Amino acid sequence: MTASENPTGGIRDSYTEKYGFHDAxxxxxxxxxxxxxxxxxxxxxxxxxxxxxxxFRLKALETxxxxxxxxxxxxxxxxxxxxxxYYVKPTEQEAKSWEDVPADMKRTFDRxxxxxxxxxxxSGVGAQYDSEVVYHKIKENLEKLGVLFLSTDHxxxxxxELFRRYFATVIPPTDNKFAALNSAVxxxxxxxxxxxxxxxxxxLQAYFRINTKDMGQFERTLIIxxxxxxxxxxxxxxxxxxxxxxxxxxxxxxxxxxxxRCRYTTIQNWSNNVYNLVTKRAAAxxxxxxxxVDGNLGSKLTIKYPAIYLMExxxxxxxxxxxxxxxxxxxxxxxKAVHVAPNTTSKIVSKSISKxxxxxxxxxxxxxxxxxxxxxxxxxxxxxxxxxxSRSDTYPTMEIEEDQVSIGHEATVSKIGDEQLFYLTSxxxxxxxxAAMIVAGFIExxxxxxxxxxxxxxxxxxxxxxxxxxx
Amino acid sequence: MTAGTRTTTRPVEGGLDAWPALALExxxxxxxxxxxxxxxxKAAEVVARLPFPDRRLELWRRTDFGTLALGELxxxxxxxxxxxxxxxPAAVIARxxxxxxxxxxLVQRNSDVVLEQTPPALAQxxxxxxxxxxxxxxxxxxxxxxxxxxxxxxLDRYAALHQAMRAGGAFxxxxxxxxxxxxxxxxQWLDPDQPSAGAPAGARTxxxxxxxxxxxxxxxxxxxxxxECLSETADGPAFFSGGxxxxxxEDAKLVYGHLQDWGRNVVHxxxxxxxxxxxxxxxxxxxxxxxxxxxxxxxxQLVGAGARAYVHGFMFGDQRQHFDLHTLxxxxxxxxxxxxxxxxxxxxxxxxxxxGMIQVAHGAQRTDAYQANRNLLLSDTARADSIPGLEILANxxxxxxxxxxxxxxxxxxxxLMTRGLPRNDAQRLVVEGxxxxxxxxxxLESVREQLRGxxxxxxx
Lengths: 471, 460
Fold this sequence. Notes:
The complex is a heterodimer of chains A (471) and B (460).
Chain A: H1 15-18, E1 29-30, H2 37-47, H3 51-66, E2 88-89, H4 103-111, H5 114-121, E3 124-129, E4 132-138, H6 140-144, E5 148-151, H7 152-158, H8 160-166, H9 177-185, E6 190-194, E7 204-209, E8 216-217, E9 220-225, E10 230-238, E11 246-248, E12 251-256, E13 261-268, E14 274-284, E15 289-296, E16 301-304, E17 307-310, E18 316-325, E19 330-339, E20 345-354, E21 359-368, E22 376-385, E23 391-400, E24 406-414, H10 418-426, H11 431-447, H12 452-469
Parallel strand pairs in A: 3-7, 6-9, 7-10, 8-11, 9-12, 10-13, 11-14, 12-14, 13-15, 14-16, 14-17, 15-18, 16-19, 17-19, 18-20, 19-21, 20-22, 21-23, 22-24
Antiparallel strand pairs in A: 1-2, 3-4, 5-6
Chain B: E1 2-3, E2 6-8, H1 19-29, H2 34-49, H3 90-96, E3 104-109, E4 112-117, H4 120-123, E5 128-131, H5 132-138, H6 140-143, H7 157-165, E6 169-174, E7 184-190, E8 193-194, E9 208-209, E10 212-217, E11 222-231, E12 238-248, E13 253-261, E14 266-276, E15 281-288, E16 293-302, E17 308-317, E18 322-331, E19 337-346, E20 351-360, E21 367-377, E22 383-392, E23 397-406, H8 410-418, H9 423-439, H10 445-459
Helix pairs in contact in B: 1-2, 2-7, 8-9, 9-10
């Protein structure tokens, strides 16, 4: 097979050896399979939560029961919600140093390169293993400035007042079925608070790992960027390759106050047996900036549309989305920008690649509420289909209730251009390299926004498949 | 049954539930062929089975028919037969602008076709322009595999109701190799309702009608066909349910326009389908100016290599008008082309919904598909929803879509005003310019000019 026929042949081909391993099952507590009020009470009790949180969870469970499954976005009929462990507690407590992380888990995160990254690139690191965060660390100087970076469970325990002021204010449990599910059984996730005027120049990172088979991971992340502050948060996720499916259903809420800026980067690289059904939403206030950089490479089915609510004048939102769907994968990625206030702006760039029968797409919403005059929004979606058995979908929606606005959407779907290939090969570039260059160029606008080590990784993956596909 | 130019209308006893059986009885009396009767029966079963669509259906999320009480309308309102053009309503005569003798012409009033006219120039070519009722009697073999072949009976309850209640409608046939010598116009007219004798004062029984149109062009044929919906605004509600099925044969070329200029009391629902064979070309123009609420589904199937569809349309709403257009460009064969451009301008509290989809089937390589939607909001209480979409299952394709929503361009306004134009005139020019590219494609000059006038009047 020539490279041009299979220009990303190697992306994720080495997943099993790199990420797909799993540790022997280890946990200090594992709830029985299935979900009922008793399980929810058990989770809350084990965490020693205040009564209001238990009440919140039980109410959310009721909401979850009542809400229908979404009828769009992908096939959810194969998920057996009774055959899932909703809570698996891997250790007794969160470690403050790598030495205290249990050996097997430490080996896992070592293999994934987490401690190394912490030293080299990061201001702080969190690591979640199944339902609980097993390690969390932030650089001392940031701690002194009042920056909080801890597991969401600990935030509830140690900073209840701050926590309660913001928790579930951006995404209420009634938002959708999976937000309700998460609200009922949430565990782990990151809590970040950046005080007024503090700039966290080096990213904070969390790493999410599912180990247990038939496991559901429901982390809950809450980020508050106070006035004029800045933070860049990076999350990565992987899981072992099992024959049966796992469920990952996170809720991420972000509040960016006046003049603040938050960038949230996701490299989703779940194994191909994970249903990834995530609700992510940010509220950006006066002159604040919210940026989602959302890379979806893994999972069986991802349904995720990072959203920005532009709440006050001058707020700006950006979403950069890259979706890659290989064999057996469906990436229903996208973005939402809801312009509530006048003179707010948003920009969405989506790049999707599908191959080997995969299905990648963009589903989005631009909404301009009545009164939100002077809004500007642009959406650009490009899709590359690499063979004749794959599929690309684009479903943008625009709901505009105000006239003094400028809203635009453009999308293209194509294959690797023969002209581009010809141009490069006529200049002596071998065909496989040429195809790789074109694919790299296609995703470049997004890749260049990734933190260095991820950008390198992404480009390396593209290179790798080229080597594998020669002949 | 008829009184002057007005129509005595009365609701059907038993309401909507009784409609399909009565329509079937009438069809039996009219000697419709067995297969056509069977089609009505099957549709009636779907009507009985399905509820009316609501917001849970994707295609009905943004549009509903509000207070329309269908069961209180008269689905069998007769139309006054016309001996010639002079017997037609004045507004229709004006619309024809003295050109009637140079047209294939069919006029329907309410539920009846009242005028069929095929001038010798067309008749000699073997071109058929007649009522669907006549075609079912005289050309059943030409209709059996066409009528109802493209519109899905169970798309929603209204679609099923249309097939069960079919009344009137037109058949246009252009034989292989024939270039139709004259344009063909199919006009729908709805009379204002007239309270029936003894009805309580103020009670209105509006007209409901469901004509079906079949247009078929043979291999290498060509024709220009306009379907026009006209009425004057009346007090009572009226419901028009349309169904148009268009067949463009191999290497045939059809220019088709659908112009909706109803009075403001009409709720319009229609399904329009076109099937284009190898090498065929369809030029499609769709305009919405009138009516209270309009919901139209226009689907284009490109089934043979080299088939092409060029679709241009506009909607211009004011007051509380609501337009909803759903288009589907289905590429089912290699090397097919579709190019779609829908424009919408909205004043006052008007609202438009444009939902469009390009589907490229597995194996439909070298497809070239384009879809654009432009929305111009002329008031801060107007609303435009745009939902373009792509579903692509082939890789060697070029598919692009774009959608924009905005207001009158400040730079254009500035340019015009610096040249001394008052604000209103400048805005008028910009809006006229917005519609011009679609307007220019309307095939008959007299129709084009009338539409231009209507747009100008509407800009105000």
